[in-house]
Description:
Number of helices: 1
Shape: globular
Helix content: under 10%
Strand order of the largest sheet: 1-3-5-7
Order of helices and strands: EEHEEEEEE
Distance between the termini: 31 Å
Largest sheet: 4 strands, parallel
Number of domains: 1
Mean pLDDT: 83
CATH architecture: Alpha-Beta Horseshoe
CATH superfamily: Ribonuclease Inhibitor
Strand content: 25-35%
Amino acid sequence: xxxxxxxxxxxxxxxxxxxxxxxxxxxxxxxxxxxxxxxxxxxxxxxxxxxxxxxxxxxxxxxxxxxxxxxxxxxxxxxxxxxxxxxxxxxxxxx
Length: 95
């Protein structure tokens, strides 16, 4: 799946946690799980998606803090995590 660049799984009624190894198996540039019923934390393996440009995890039921690896993306220009149950702490080096 190395040529895959867009994954849009929005509005599919997916539930449960994001698989912990998702970033190891799906190299992509645009990733959206908008408006599902995703629970749990943002997995650390999403940090392995080094060319990620868009990450939309909004309108789910994610918990925990915003991972510090979010601030390490070189290409990320759109991030939305709104309408989850994430802590309000934004990594210091983000922005």
